[in-house]
Design brief:
30 helices, alpha/beta, ten-stranded mixed sheet, 2 domains, six-stranded parallel sheet, Rossmann fold, 22 strands, binds pyridoxal-5'-phosphate, single chain
């Protein structure tokens, strides 16, 4: 069973006694990955469509609705069934962890991360890192790993994106009302638990909230409380805030606050997982704790290192956190005294290279104080070993390739199919016995194809809805809005490209040679269309310029009707896209894509990856499950590389992808294409789920490191 966190009551939800367990369901995001769940929609389809957040919805459902539901046997059965599944899930004592590691370690795994993407209703994630953290947490819950996550409660979230007719990105920062969110105040002495953190000349308090994902609590720290000065309240407002000092202050709260919150709750983690450098200052706090309880600094370092693992997530410099030393000293001036040392020691711990002390690198700090360092694909591990080997004393960076949480990302229809042809334990069976995959290969092509077309139609409907909202805001006429109903026809080859508009992801690559692209996309016999989506960081002017350019091209006479841009990419849109497109395109500049996970989501649903051999695809591509193109390594000449990769992209699209898609049998099914879809599903399910990934973390790190503690 999970780590229990005492909480105070949340919002006053208007739930009648007969359905009182809805309260527990609303405050546990388990519902979001429960395969059967339609419960919230059944309460009120209109309210559900409006909010998609049970806590918010339950605070507005009116008494008349409950009266109707009180007399609905269908609803009562659905309610009872959901509660039963939920209780079974929460109390199961025969999980994977129970069977293999029941008493292996003496305390939970603490998982520290700056973003947690569990569900669209909690906008405290920006992209791949956050969604991965959410998926990791959900699989830890499914597998029964004793696990507690810690992060920050960003009340202004990561921004919501609007795109103007000009293509300019607008940044919206809606205020998160905690009484409408699936978070509960953690109980402390005399009210909500708050931890104290020393700031220059003052103390800042961080209130502690709990968001629950199945068996796993996610503790969220929040400085926006009346106890703090107005100037300190916004510290935790915005994810990846621009100001360097504000960013440092956030990561200081995250690192120090995480350790103190766990201590205040009496939780003694057996293993600490520092997920990316943002939370690395937790290591300073733990060092000080060790010295405070009598250890020498040398022994304290050993003790901290022994049960800490650190995961690197990007080889891109902008992704690593490096601060100027004077800023660090401003905040950590008092810290050397706590460990009986001096500021030179602190500077040394954060230096990227020995003897270079001007900058404080949180990644370097974490590497120095971890005994297990990993990258998120085999290729990334090799690249990271090159970058960081000098701090690893000759050891290599381990490779634990990312995955995605199958219950979240595999479509309802595909879950049903897999359950039907394999069993309800399809994922475990596929991972443990690859011959089970034969059963999927035997499924008639028409079944796979028709399921896929159904999801494609859902994507079309979803996209048209988004475009209508977008164009209406731009002032389009009723006739123009009506014409949206003819856009994105689902019988066309549809290519998806959705990810953050970070420049290394090269969103403009396909526009290198517009006449050639036009010839491929607008061929009347074999048309194709591309859907783009993604946010550019508010400080990333180049990324915003890319969006503007794609909007412009989407309206150009050459490409209009074949290029679309959807605004406000998030987890929900990600599900529609990765479940509905035919092809998932990824063309990063290698080797900068540490892993990439969206391609795994597409593959699990039968989407075919068309990707540069970087990140996960370098190990995921097997020649039968999609396409690889372009250079595997650049020589630093970006322009030449982009040229070459774009040519390779056009060739593979024109000669392989498009013809294969339109090669149909008498029933209209593209048999060879469907054969590839099956291979994509099998290879991604076998290799790239977070179930596989979390098991690997447990076996290679959580258990061996956690055992050192008591042993
Ligand atoms: C999966 C996912 C990502 C990660 O995509 P990459 O392929 O790693 O770029 C980013 N954002 C959202 C909303 C996702 O669901």
């Amino acid at each position: 069973m999970g780590v229990d966190i005492p909480t105070l009551p949340g919002a006053e939800l208007r739930v009648p006694e007969t359905f009182s367990r809805l309260y527990d369901l609303a405050y546990n995001l388990w519902w979001s990955w429960d395969a059967m769940n339609q419960l919230w929609r059944s309460i009120s389809p209109e309210l559900w469509t409006q909010y998609r957040n049970p806590v918010e919805m339950l605070s507005v459902v009116d008494p008349a609705t409950w009266k109707v539901l009180d007399h609905s046997e269908v609803f009562q059965d659905q309610y009872a069934d959901t509660v039963r599944r939920f209780d079974n899930y929460m109390t199961a004592d025969d999980t994977w962890w129970d069977r293999h590691y029941a008493d292996a370690i003496d305390g939970p795994v603490a998982y520290l991360c700056a973003e947690h993407g569990v569900h669209s209703s909690m906008p405290i994630y920006s992209g791949g890192l956050g969604v991965l953290a959410g998926d990791h947490t959900k699989s830890a819950s499914d597998l029964g790993v004793p696990f507690v996550a810690v992060g920050l409660l960003y009340r202004r979230g990561y921004f919501r994106q609007e795109i103007e007719a000009s293509g300019d990105q607008q940044h919206m920062y809606p205020v998160v009302d905690t009484s409408r969110m699936p978070v509960l105040p953690v109980a402390g002495r005399g009210g909500q638990l708050k931890v104290e953190i020393e700031f220059p000349g003052r103390t800042v308090l961080a209130a502690v909230w709990k968001m629950q994902a199945g068996r796993v609590p996610i503790l969220l720290l929040d400085t926006d409380i009346p106890d703090n000065a107005d100037a300190d309240r916004p510290i935790t407002h915005m994810l990846y805030v621009r100001g360097r000092e504000m960013r440092f202050a956030q990561e200081y709260i995250l690192g120090i606050g995480a350790v103190r919150a766990l201590k205040a709750l009496g939780i003694r983690p057996a293993t600490w997982h520092v997920n990316e450098g943002h939370a690395a200052m937790s290591l300073l706090e733990r060092l000080a704790d060790e010295v405070g309880s009598g250890a020498s600094l040398e022994d304290a370092e050993k003790a901290v290192r022994a049960n800490t693992l650190f995961t690197l997530h990007t080889p891109v410099p902008a992704g690593n956190e490096v601060f100027e030393m004077p800023l660090v000293e401003k905040y950590l001036n008092h810290w050397p005294r706590r460990v009986d040392s001096d500021i030179a020691y602190l500077a040394h711990m954060g230096s990227s290279r020995e003897g270079q002390n001007g900058h404080f690198d949180l990644g370097a700090l974490a590497i120095r104080l971890s005994s297990f360092v990993n990258g998120v694909s085999q290729r990334h591990a090799a690249v990271a070993t090159g970058d960081w080997g000098h701090l690893l004393g000759g050891e290599a960076v381990h490779g634990i390739t990312n995955g995605v949480h199958t219950p979240t990302w595999v479509s309802r229809g595909n879950k049903r199919l897999l359950t039907e042809v394999i069993s309800s334990e399809w994922l475990t069976q596929l991972i443990e016995d690859p011959s089970v995959a034969e059963k999927l290969r035997q499924v008639p092509d028409t079944r796979i194809w028709e399921d896929h077309l159904a999801r494609k139609r859902l994507l079309t409907r979803f996209s048209r809805g988004r475009l209508r909202r977008q164009y209406a805001r731009h002032g389009a006429s009723p006739d123009e809005l009506r014409a949206i109903d003819t856009l994105l026809p689902p019988d066309r080859l549809t290519i998806g490209f959705a990810r953050r508009f970070a420049t290394y992801k090269r969103a403009l690559l396909m526009f290198h040679n517009i006449p050639w692209l036009q010839a491929i996309l607008t061929n009347p016999d074999r048309p194709a269309q591309v859907i783009f989506a993604g946010k550019a960081h508010p400080a990333d002017k180049m990324g915003q310029e890319y969006i503007r350019r794609i909007i412009e091209l989407s309206k150009s006479p050459e490409l209009a009707g074949h290029i679309y841009v959807l605004e406000d990419y998030d987890i929900r849109m990600g599900r529609f896209l990765t479940q509905g497109v035919d092809v998932w395109l990824n063309n990063p500049r290698p080797p900068q894509e540490a892993s990439g996970t969206s391609g795994m989501k597409a593959a699990m649903n039968g989407g075919l990856n068309l990707s540069i051999l970087d990140g996960w695809w370098a190990e995921g591509f097997n020649g039968r499950n999609g396409w690889a193109f372009g250079l595997e390594w650049g020589d630093g000449n970006h322009q030449a590389q982009d040229n070459e990769d774009a040519l390779a992209l056009y060739k593979v699209l024109q000669d392989e992808v498009v013809p294969l898609y339109y090669e149909r049998d008498e029933s209209g099914t593209p048999g060879a294409w469907v054969a590839m879809m099956k291979e994509a599903m099998i290879s991604s399910l076998v290799g790239f789920s977070t179930n596989r990934m979390v098991k690997q973390y447990a076996e290679e790190a959580y258990v061996p490191l956690g055992k050192r503690l008591g042993g």
